[in-house]
């Protein structure tokens, strides 16, 4: 992958994705070979929204590569609370770190940050926009379980606001994958995302009922229905129950079905699914380590190559 930043899954070609995932496999097979590879470098963890998995796995991944990490802490304890702009904040942090991971509630925040700094920026979620490093670990999980071609993938839940969905759907267009989107009408994929997917020639269909497609799926990617986005709570309760699965729901699924979820879950996957062979969401979360190590290793390598080219001029 020859990229300076990771901002959106749409920037990734099939070759880019396979290069990172091949490296993630190498990391998983022999993590010691990557230890101290980037000793002396610092990763800034800039989280303007809550996170458990993304923040902690990037922190752990960086340390396993020999990097130090620094964080902003609680947004209320940073100078953002005094009204500092995002562009000023990242320009300052650029002087303290060699790479930056940014989560922000505003769509486009990572694009803006990348325009203002010269160190690598990873978009760790920008509002309802994109979450491309999550997508890389999702793809790694799918590849390790099924490969990435000749697949049927169902993506269910809140497709309107789910940034992991927008990134995953875009990335899957690089592969021979039939995509099925299952949601209430009110939470369909945004028109702009549908348009972009159609432009790639992607094979996609939309459903309101999981039963229409469950038996055909190799992967069911479940997402949380975001209660807080509904103007009418009754409407949430009306649709949410239809998009919850339990072990009995999966009676009609293929034995090889892989159930994924970016987590955190609330009640969209019942705990009895955890006991089935379908449950893959904890493995998926753990894949954040080798995949984010591979991603950081790649971006740091690219940045070092850029510096050498600049020095040779
Ligand atoms: N999947 C994910 O992004 O989880 P966090 O919000 O805990 O980082």
TrEMBL record:
One of its GO terms (biological process) is 'de novo' UMP biosynthetic process. InterPro entries: Asp/Orn_carbamoyltranf_P-bd (IPR006132), Asp/Orn_carbamoylTrfase (IPR006130), Asp/Orn_carbamoylTrfase_sf (IPR036901), Asp_carbamoyltransf (IPR002082), Asp_carbamoyltransf_Asp/Orn-bd (IPR006131). The keyword Transferase applies. The keyword Transferase applies. Catalyzes the condensation of carbamoyl phosphate and aspartate to form carbamoyl aspartate and inorganic phosphate, the committed step in the de novo pyrimidine nucleotide biosynthesis pathway. Belongs to the aspartate/ornithine carbamoyltransferase superfamily. ATCase family. Its EC number is 2.1.3.2. This is Aspartate carbamoyltransferase. Residues 5-144 form the Aspartate/ornithine carbamoyltransferase carbamoyl-P binding domain. One of its GO terms (molecular function) is aspartate carbamoyltransferase activity. Pathway: Pyrimidine metabolism; UMP biosynthesis via de novo pathway; (S)-dihydroorotate from bicarbonate: step 2/3. Keywords: Pyrimidine biosynthesis, Transferase. Gene3D superfamilies: Aspartate/ornithine carbamoyltransferase. L-aspartate binds at residues 82, 163, 224. Carbamoyl phosphate binds at residues 53-54, 103, 131, 134, 263-264. It comes from the Archaea.
């Amino acid at each position: 992958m020859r990229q300076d930043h990771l901002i959106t899954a749409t920037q990734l070609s099939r070759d880019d994705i396979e290069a990172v995932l091949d490296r993630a496999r190498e990391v998983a097979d022999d993590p010691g070979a990557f230890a101290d590879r980037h000793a002396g470098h610092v990763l800034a963890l800039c989280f303007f929204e809550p996170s458990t998995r993304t923040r902690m796995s990037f922190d752990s991944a960086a340390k396993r590569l020999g990097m130090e990490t620094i964080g902003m802490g609680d947004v209320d304890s940073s100078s953002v609370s005094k009204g500092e702009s995002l562009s000023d904040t990242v320009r300052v942090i650029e002087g303290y770190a060699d790479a930056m991971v940014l989560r922000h509630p505003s769509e486009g925040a990572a694009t803006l940050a990348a325009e203002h700094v010269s160190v690598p920026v990873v978009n760790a979620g920008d509002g309802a926009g994109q979450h491309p490093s999550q997508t890389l670990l999702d793809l790694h999980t799918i590849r390790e379980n099924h490969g990435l071609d000749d697949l049927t993938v169902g993506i269910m839940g809140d497709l309107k606001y789910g940034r992991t969905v927008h990134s995953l759907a875009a990335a899957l267009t690089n592969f021979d994958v039939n995509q099925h989107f299952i949601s209430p009408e009110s939470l369909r994929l945004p028109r702009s995302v549908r348009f972009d997917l159609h432009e790639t020639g992607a094979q996609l269909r939309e459903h309101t009922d999981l039963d229409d497609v469950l038996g055909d799926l190799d992967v069911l990617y479940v997402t949380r229905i975001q209660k807080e986005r509904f103007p009418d709570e009754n409407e949430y309760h009306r649709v949410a129950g239809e998009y919850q699965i339990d072990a009995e729901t999966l009676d009609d699924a293929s034995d090889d079905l892989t159930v994924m979820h970016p987590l955190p879950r609330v009640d969209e996957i019942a705990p009895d699914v955890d006991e089935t062979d379908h449950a893959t969401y904890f493995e998926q979360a753990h894949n954040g380590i080798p995949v984010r190590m591979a991603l950081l290793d790649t971006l740091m390598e690219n940045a070092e190559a850029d510096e050498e080219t600049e020095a040779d001029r």
